[in-house]
């Protein structure tokens, strides 16, 4: 039963042991894997003050093969050397330059008085177990010290051939007494030096045994060593050097697995060392193999994944110059002068030159500023002017006149060429009259431009436009158009060549006129007034009939002008007038009643008629009593013949003259009902004119 129970126990204990063993194996292997791997697994990154970066590393699995570093207590790094040599101290490691700086022992041998070498060392240490290092031929040289000494270095001889060296180099130095050697001078007296070729893999030296017998006092030993060129300077004391002395030497390292060049190395991804993005491979300059380098514009460690990082060049002005605006890019940077403001042939290396010097910028700015202000002022004035123009246009009845197609509306600019002082043909209280030509037909015109007019006269101009727009008659001066874009309208009339009846009768243009001509003028003038009084749709009173307002064309056709104080009876029922015409011709009844009627025009016409036959000037003043004398003569029944102008008095149309005289008297009657209608006057004058012409 017991055995049986044992049997039963056995199977249950066995699996337990298996499980424990398996667990231990798993843990062990796990520990092994963790220990083996490099950066991920807690590899030290420093030894003392020195950074240890891959491919270098401290501890198992922390470095690439051949790049192991030993960190001794106290933080002193050493190259892991062969078992039989002491580790070699490392004083510098550079990934970027692919260099390692180490302290190497010197080679030496000392003679006894029998001229026999009794103690020596060839200096060799095994720092290059895996062949990653070469002595830098550019940074180091060979120095030999002694007063009858010859030493050289060589690369490893080929097996079985004593002289199978690739190279063999050294130098000899001599001195007959201690006083010949000079500190700082290593040119053959007590010290010599020689460059070394690339490819040197160790520091072993070979001496020739030259006699020291006579020099034992001051130079008992030979010394030879590799040393950085700038790190050793000969001193006469070195003729008795401490044989334990170490010399600084720069080593070139490279990835030399299987002596691969870059092109070969890249083919095998599992061993290729340049694992970082943005890294490049460079063939080693010293020995076989290759080194890795971050691409231009990147920095860091190309031997680890993502080790190469972009350089922000803009933050390192000392190394990456830029005189313009700097912008970092992956692997490079942009440098541009501020656009439009400055330029440079090469902003990376040459300063940006402003396109405009500051002074010019200021000048341009100031001028620009003034220009803009001037422009704004100009536009404001232009708009104000335009607004004013429009206001005037509307005030002067423009919108109404626009619909009247027999009157042309001129723009200010249209009349500008005419309104020159050289063109003035008349001047008066009302304004100035200019002669000019207008339109494609070059029609001669008289332009009436008001000047310095008071408020009342302003209205006359507007009034005239409105009246004239309604009267079209061969005996009324034609208003061709006007310009409403000014405060007071400028009026453009047809040009009447001979001037006014006033001028022709009494003034500068005095012309001989026979009775027929005078009657013709009177009849045509009367016809125009009759037309105004009755033929137009609304009665228009002229209000200022006088010789000066009757113009004469070439063929003496009269044309009534100046409707400044005319009245539209239909509109203005009161037709009282604040402005009155020439007192000489003004109806005295009007003065009494203050009421202007068509008979007022008849009275004025009577005076004109009287002047026409007497060629004497009527006047309001008491001294000239033409009217009174004529009327007196007529009422007294005495002959009025004395009053008649001699030019027509001599004719045999006495009957006609008497008729005219009678008409004058009727017109001047103080009983307005006695005064004939204008139509009547016109008819009778036409009849008389025909008779005078003998028809
Ligand atoms: C160890 O490093 C190698 C390359 O150095 C890598 O391929 C491997 O995955 C790493 N192993 C671990 C466990 O991290
Ligand atoms: C010099 O050294 C050799 C070899 O060790 C020895 O035979 C010789 O006696 C020494 N001479 C003197 C003077 O010590
Ligand atoms: C110099 O002398 C030493 C010891 O006597 C000997 O081992 C060595 O081979 C000699 N060197 C040469 C180049 O003869
Ligand atoms: C790459 O290198 C590894 C290790 O040296 C080797 O085992 C493998 O065969 C190589 N692969 C190729 C394709 O050469």
UniProtKB/TrEMBL annotation:
Instruction: List membrane-spanning regions.
Output: 358-382
What is the protein's membrane topology class? Single-pass type I membrane protein
**Record's signal peptide:** 1-30
Q: Which residues form a coiled coil?
A: none
Q: Which Pfam families match?
A: GUB_WAK_bind, PK_Tyr_Ser-Thr
Q: Where does ATP bind?
A: 458
Any idea what this protein is called? Protein kinase domain-containing protein
> To which species is this protein native?
Oryza brachyantha (malo sina)
